[in-house]
Structures are given as structure tokens and as C-alpha cells.
Amino acid sequence: MSVTSTVIGYPYIGANREWKRTVEAYWKKTLTEERFEESMKALRLANIQKQIDAKVDIVTVGDFTYYDRVLDVAAMFGMVPKRYNWDGKEVDLDTYYSIARGNKESVSSEMTKWFNTNYHYIVPEYDRSSLRLYENNPLKAYLEAKEELGVSGKPTMIGPITFYKLTKELKKGDQPAYMSQLISLYTQVLKELVAEDVEWIQLEEPILATSISEKDMELAIMVYKQFSEIVPEAKILLQTYFESVDHYEAVIDLPVAGIGLDFVHGYQENLANLKKWGFPEEKVLVAGIINGRDIWCTPLEKQFDLLIELESLVGRGKLWIQPSCSLMHVPVTVNSESTLPEPLKNNLAFADEKLKELSILRNALCEGSHAYQEVFNHNKSSIDDLNNHPSRKLRNVHEAIAQVNEGDFNRTSSYEVRKAIQQKSLQLPLFPTTTIGSFPQTPEVKKARSQMRKGEISSEDYREFIKLEIKKWIDYQEKLGLDVLVHGEFERTDMVEYFGEKLDGFAFTENAWVVSYGSRCVKPPIIYGDVQWIMPMTVSETVYAQSLTKKPVKGMLTGPITILNWSFVRNDIPRKEVANQIALAIRKEVQFLEGEGIRIIQVDEPALREGLPLKINKQASYLEWAINAFKLATSQVADETQIHTHMCYCEFNDFIEPIRKLDADVISIETSRSHGEIIEAFKHYEYKNDIGLGVYDIHSPRIPQLNEMKAIIDDSLEVLSAQQCWINPDCGLKTRKTEETLAALERMIDTTKTFRERYKTSM
Ligand SMILES: CN1c2c(nc(N)[nH]c2=O)NC[C@@H]1CNc1ccc(C(=O)N[C@@H](CCC(=O)N[C@@H](CCC(=O)N[C@@H](CCC(=O)O)C(=O)O)C(=O)O)C(=O)O)cc1
Ligand SMILES: N[C@@H](CCS)C(=O)O
Ligand SMILES: [Zn+2]
């Protein structure tokens, strides 16, 4: 028996986030372009070396990026939006980073979630320019790895159908011209690769694992047919991941040499289809067998048995194995962790450990499982140890869940009744202004936290420092004239990690970073036991902030679904159960805040949309339990207490109905980076509750123009009433500098004043 191992991609950040530091140093101009390129090359090669050391049979190259791999394709083809006044000569680094981050003159391109992950890509924009191939990145990566490491890798890039479908809404009639340009560009890439004797070429088409239409599938058939006719020598490995493919028969019939299917997410559908329809003899099946989205050890024997079954279905020598998707969604190595509790640590597999598992499965398949029985047994007993651990059997948590009933999910009064009561008590002006929660995490804030961690300052000193920051920012907010204030979240490293550190059932890591967007990384906590509230998490900071001002201070919590979706979650019980456990813990915190006199509480759910299953037929059940978890956390408050929620980074146009069902008194929603498109959706939908308009993009260092914010508010007022609208930035301000934040907020308040003036008789 012979089996080949490969990977779809490996994390580019480096075990100690060297990639992030290099990119940020270049932005700060503390690194020259030459040094930057040198460091990036070293990192790129080190990552490939990791695959070589792990004895991956077919090493993947071209999975590295300077910011984002979707942007890379756009840059390869010279898709630079006109607003950057690009000279069309080459997409140099500064042009590339302007598209991603904006510059003094122009806003950045939109950024949105990469399928159902917490990674965000830059949305390509097609503006009818004529495109050409400026740089063949996969070829460059291939040649570099060959020259420097002597390895003939498998270059990868995002495939044409996925790239086309992720491009920002095309103008009517532009589709055929754009597609035909893409076909010739991809064809040229393929031709140049073939000319250099590249054997396998990976095209990533995760879009095929969503519920795509017949028409889109026909487009894929047409495009891949053209590739096979124009470059018949190209051995294309078409990769799908994150779910099963809907159009199985059509996908396996595409004229390519190999097809990657996910046998972790949506494995039942892929397996059932494989059994029903078979698999073409002339192709290889690349089975995603190790979960690339979680950090748990693979149940080796179970996956080995599945592989035996797959091999019997596709035939000898035709089966390759790989992780289910790029390993960029998991941290680099468990070896960097020294403080995790025992039964947990033995059950973790990050990217490097997953490569080891891949090697074990490959060897067991090649050599026969008998030599690996001991490894399998050891792996199974580790998993059993964690499953039977007392932290997973907390009686009070299970009893509390059992007691939840219908009444726990709904507010006492209707929205209309609540709005009148809240308005009377809060006395807010028309177009109330607020912010989303966090204020700048300055180097001083991060330094103080780091000193506290290292024991260089005491916890009391750290708390005092945080209080000073809160006071400073309450003063700023009062001076600016904001109506609803926040304490600023200075005590939080991250809106999920912070709660994970304070709730029972979570473990947190020292170095388990994954990229969230650009150079920004997150360190998701690990939910390994039953979750319960053990101590107030936000009360002292919020109450302190409220004591400094007469204006209402908004309590700031992360919602249960966002905590769930941005953590690595135990896999022994359904996610719905974990969500309800978290919801009960957040509910307790909500009640504490309310008990301390906090009249407005925001429960953020930016990841609600992200958790939506990619397949339409799986979405309704997720939405039902996810919305219920939010309501479980937020409904048991008095009518006077105003519940806010906040969402960002997603397409919400098709998400108004779920938003309505949350029944939050106010929702702040991203409206700036998608240039107000969400507002269009409200045209077709009657939405009564209040809405916070995110009037400027917080991701860009540039100060928003008055007329840009005005335009968003004007557009919104065409479909929403003035009495419904709040004015705020589109997300938290933790990544911004103090001066930028103050200047932007000042303009936001000035803009609001012009609208108050215009509508002053309507109060
Ligand atoms: C709102 N978003 C979030 C998402 N997911 C989350 N889990 N959290 C989110 O807020 N997804 C969607 C968006 C994505 N947005 C962001 C925005 C900003 C960041 C970000 O700023 N990340 C920071 C890391 C934050 C953090 O934890 N900082 C630590 C310091 C860590 C550190 O760098 N330490 C120093 C050494 C310190 C020492 O002890 O000496 C170092 O390692 O050098 C802290 O504040 O203490 C980032 O820089 O990437 C992420 C997602
Ligand atoms: N309250 C959070 C929400 C981010 S989505 C913040 O302001 O950072
Ligand atoms: Zn946000």
C-alpha cells in the first residue's frame, strides 16, 4: 500500500510571530525594504523546511503572503482600484499595503470574513481596467524553494472561481469580460509553471464547498475545461475545504489531475457521495483527514480506519492525505506552552503536531497498522482521560442548563414599551453618540500589562494604572461631548481571551497565536471543561468609570456565540450545549452590572454571522440555538436596562432577520468599510429597533472626512428614521493611536451636530 502526504498550507506567522514583527517594522519604517525582503524570505523558507523536516511527501509553496492571499492574486493581476492613482508600472509594496490599509488620500479596500473562519481577507475590486500578469507568485515561490532548499514543491494559489466569486459586487454586464480576463491570466500562470517543469499546481476553491448555484458550477466547468484545453500539461490539484461539495458528480468530473475533499467537515456527505458515485480512475483523491480548524489530537485509529475505507473506494496508489484545510487557522506548536493542565496538554495538536500525526497515518498506511497499534492505543487513552476528566462533569452547570425554560429567552415587555421607558430614564439627544467599547491599547497599556505578568509591578499597581487610563478617557469622552460613554477595555488583551481567563472551563495559552487579519493576531482560549461564572469579570472597571461621570456608562461584555466561535472548543459535546453554558455565565455578569446601577449593557456578537454554516440546509438550526444563546444571556433584565449589541466584519445584507430576532434595543453595525451597503438591505425590511451607524472605518489610520460620514448618515436616513439612529465608529478603537482617535471622534461629533440641527424639530 502506498500513500502520499501533502498539506494545503502551513501558518506563515512563525512560532514567535516573527512575520508580524517584520511586517509591522516595515510599516513603522524601522526596517528597510531590502531588510524586510530578506527577513520574509528567511521565514518563507523556514516554513517550507518545517514541512520537509516533517517528511511531508509533497511540500506546498506559495502559501506565504505579505498581508493576505486574496490580495496577492489581485496584486499579481494589477487589480489596483483607481482611487490609488497607481502608475500601472508594478504593484510595489507601498501600493500593495495601501490597498490593504488605506493611505492618507484613499480608503482601503473592504475586508471581510474568509468563509466561516476568524480570518479576514481583502475584497478584490474590479473596475473594468484591463488586467495583466505583473508577477507570477506561485512560480517565484516554486523557483525559490527549488534553488534554496532543493525541493520541487507544489505551488498554490486561490483558484479562479473562488477569486471571482469573492470579488466585490460586479457592475451589471461586467461579469463576462472580467471572467474572460481571469481565464487568460490564470492560463498564463499555468503555462509559465508548466514551462518550468512544475509537476503539481494547487488551485484552492473553497467556494465549491459552499451552497453554490448550478450556474456557478457550470462556470467552474467551463473555466477548468478551458484550462485543460489550453494547458493540457498542467497537473492541477483542485482543493476544496471547510465543507463537503454540493455538486459532487460535477466536481469530480472536472478535467483536473487531483481533487481535494474535506473528510473532517462535511465528511459524511463527501463519504456518502464517494460511495454512491465513485471516483474517477485517472485522478488522485486528496483526503483532508486531520482537522485543520481545531487544536485537538486526531483520533488516529478512527481516521486510519476511514483511510482504509477511502483507499478501498478509490484504489491503490490513488489516495493522498492532508489536513482538512490550510494549517494557518491553528497555532504553530504546542512546544511553546508550559502552563497548560496535564490532561489538556496531552490532547493538543497545533500545526507542527498535526504534521506529525499526518506522518503517523501515512506510515501506518504504508507499513500496516500493527507497528502503530501502541501509538493508536496511547492516543485513544489520552482522549479518554480528557473526556472523563471531572472538569467536564460539573453537576451544578448541568443542573442550571436543565432548569432553563421558555421564559428565560424573552424580555418582559415589547421593544416599543422598553424604548419609551429607556428614553425617559436616559434622556438621550437625537442621534446619540457612542463608541463600540475599546480605546487605544497604547504601548504604555501593553507595557504595564507585560510588567504585571513578569512581576515587575504588582497587581494593585496595574489596577491603579488601568484606573488612571479609565479616568483619562472618561475625561476625553466628556470633553468630546459623547452621550454614552465606555470605560475603554484597557484591562483586556482581547475581547474573548479576557473572559476566557476569568471563566471556569477555559485554558489560555502563552504563545498560541493565529492571524485574524493583516498583522493582527488573536490567541483563542481553549474551552476544555464545563463553563461557569466564578467571579465578576467587568464590574469593578465599569462601576469605577460610572462613578466619574453623570453620563451613562455602557457595560461591555462579549456575547456567548462570539466567545464560542473565537475559542477552540471541546468536541465531546455539541456546540449548542457549550453556547448555553457560556450564556448562563454571561447572564450572571449582566445581572451583576445591572445590580450595580449600570443602565446600558452592550453584549458584542461580531462572530454570530461567522458561525453560520456554509451550507444553506444547516443554517436554520445554527441560527436558532445561537440567537437563543444571546437571548438567554440578555433577556433577564428590567425594561429600563438598555441592551446593545455590536457586529462587524461581515456581510450583513442577508442577515437582518436574525438581527431582528436578537431583540437588542440597539445594534451597532459596520456600515463604513462596505460603503453603506447594509443600509440598502434595510430598504427591503422593516426594522424598528435602534441602530448605531458605524460611520467610519476604524481599521485605517486616516482621519475620516466629514462628507464621508455625512454620506453614510444621509443614505441611512433614506431607509431608517432619525429617531432610530445612533452615531458611532464601526468597531472598537483598540488598534488606533490616541491622537487619531480623538481627531476622528471630534469629526464624528461635528458631523452629528449638523444632523441634530437639521432634525431639531423632530424630537
Ligand atoms: C474584533 N476582532 C476580534 C476577532 N477575534 C478576537 N478574538 N478578538 C477580536 O477583537 N476577530 C475579528 C476582529 C479582528 N480584530 C482584531 C483586532 C485587533 C487585534 C489585535 O490587536 N491583536 C494584537 C494582540 C492583542 C494582545 O493580546 N495583546 C497582548 C500583548 C501581546 C504581545 O504582543 N506581547 C508582547 C510581549 C509582552 C510581554 O509580556 O513582554 C510580544 O509578544 O511582543 C496584550 O495586550 O497584553 C496584535 O498585536 O496582533 C486582533 C484582532
Ligand atoms: N467591544 C469590542 C468590540 C470589538 S468587535 C471593542 O470595542 O473592541
Ligand atoms: Zn467590532
What does this structure look like?
- By secondary structure, the chain is α/β, with parallel strands linked by helices.
- 44% of the residues lie in helices and 12% in strands.
- The mean pLDDT is 95.
- Zinc ion (ZN) binds next to loops.
- Keywords: Amino-acid biosynthesis, Metal-binding, Methionine biosynthesis, Methyltransferase, Repeat, Transferase, Zinc.
- Belongs to the vitamin-B12 independent methionine synthase family.
- Residues 431-753 form the Cobalamin-independent methionine synthase MetE C-terminal/archaeal domain.
- Zn(2+) binds at residues 646, 648, 670, 731.
What's this, in brief?
By secondary structure, the protein is of the alpha/beta class. It contains 27 helices and 21 strands. It has an 8-stranded parallel β-sheet. It has a 6-stranded parallel β-sheet with strand order 15-17-18-19-20-21.
Task: Give the C-alpha Rg.
Answer: 26 Å
Question: Could you give a short account of the major beta sheet?
Answer: 8 strands, parallel
Bound molecules: ligand LYWDKB7T, 2-amino-4-mercapto-butyric acid, zinc ion
Output the strand order for the largest sheet: 1-10-9-8-7-6-5-2
**Count of domains:** 2
- N-to-C terminal Cα separation, in Å? 78 Å
Mean pLDDT: 95
Query: Helix/strand-derived class?
Result: alpha/beta
Task: Please tally the helical runs, counting DSSP H or I stretches of 4 or more residues.
Answer: 27
CATH architecture of the largest domain: Alpha-Beta Barrel
Domain Cobalamin-independent methionine synthase MetE C-terminal/archaeal: 431-753
Domain Cobalamin-independent methionine synthase MetE N-terminal: 5-312
Family: Belongs to the vitamin-B12 independent methionine synthase family.
EC number: 2.1.1.14
